[in-house]
Amino acid sequence: MIHGVVNAAYEAVVVLPLQGPAGQVRDIEAVVDTGYSGFLTLPTAVVAELELPFAYVGQAFLANDDEVSFDVHDVTVVWDGQPRPIKADATGSIPLVGMLLLANHDLNVEVVDGGRVLIQARE
Description:
Blueprint: E1 2-6, E2 12-19, E3 25-32, E4 40-42, H1 44-49, E5 54-61, E6 67-79, E7 82-90, E8 96-97, H2 99-102, E9 105-109, E10 116-121
Parallel strand pairs: 3-8, 4-7
Antiparallel strand pairs: 1-2, 1-10, 2-3, 2-6, 4-8, 5-6, 6-7, 9-10
């Protein structure tokens, strides 16, 4: 079970430990984004700090139909207490948790400032 909180901007935020290839660990605060269909986005500074291996160049269409390219990296996230290797998109400045990371989990958000965020594996 993963616990988080709704911040003053009404974003559902969780803290996730990341592991780099040399075993280095860094906690990040990530916003749950149900409109993002990938696993996780990370700022390029975090990618560089953890020395995450490059996987490939990804592409996506923004809401205004602009196409963007971005680097995708391999990272291990500690998800629900277990290490889970995933692909992370190096985009933006705020880490985002996407729907692929939430797959097979229930998401419950109390949408008030300071509300509870709960991510729980489906049984």
